[in-house]
Amino acid sequence: MSFEYTEITDPLFVENKGQTGEDDYIMVRAKQYSHVPIKIPNWTPQAHCYTTLFKQYEQELLEAEVYPDDVWVISYPKSGTTWTQEMVWLICNDLNFEAARAESLQIRFPFLDVSLIHPTDTSSFERAKNTPRPRFIKTHLPVSMLPKRYWEVKPKTIHIRRNPKSVAVSYFFHSQGIHYRGSMDTFLRSFVREHQFYSPYHAHVIEYHELQDCDNILYLSFEEMKHYLPSVVRKVCEFFGKAYSKPELELLYQHLSFKSMRDNPTVNYKSRDPTKKGEQFIRKGEAEGWKKELTPEQIQLLDEWTKEKVPNPEQRKLFE
């Protein structure tokens, strides 16, 4: 067996899982990882949080095909993934705004591994397999769980990260819009115990930044995009060997503005549950919106969590 499965026995999780809608959560650890080119000495991957659906799709994950002309966007959830996907798709497709507005980002940029956490009519791995090339692939998988072919092929990849407090707030509202029934405080305490999908969060970010000989990966941050979008766009254009005129780039910046993204139905997915009237997918798009959303006690909880999980001062810069 390529993966090890364990139940979550944390008392807080067990006490709340029936009320919060997390009954089928489990922890999954990759047992085969020697092919991952990571610099961390004596590295052993941690278990990550999924649902019991993982067992159903583990073979499809292991055998997923990867092509040299693929373009991948990788992140921990709620790190600016959708914004990055839209930017990357347009830069790679000659700024074809008409085509971008005509087709949902979910179709243009399939989510490879969503079947591991949510029921889907069709396997998300099958959907990605049948997507016409060149494919654009989104994933939240940690380095230990990427398909083996990924490391053989090394397709062009963008990795996006975001401040943990921003991630925590955005992840709560996102989860609330789909299935989560608990309070923000309960969610945050579960989050810092690594019991939300794809957690542990810090390990995900650090492990991607500790890969070696992976010049196929360009690293970005949400905060960098928010404050220096033209600079980020230039880096991404150079990464993909693209060049555009100043007027063309101005149209791209306008298209990628928060207002434009929020008003764009092809990227701002509607809630999967029509009975829910919460926040829409693209909510506020702020770099430091957590300052308005979190209590001082919650901020302290998240800051102490980062200090505990990231003792290395250089690595901690990834979470500022």
From TrEMBL:
One of its GO terms (molecular function) is sulfotransferase activity. The keyword Transferase applies. It comes from Anopheles arabiensis (Mosquito). InterPro entries: P-loop_NTPase, Sulfotransferase_dom. PANTHER family: SULFOTRANSFERASE SULT. Residues 68-310 form the Sulfotransferase domain. This is Sulfotransferase domain-containing protein. The keyword Cell division does not apply. Keywords: Transferase. Belongs to the sulfotransferase 1 family.
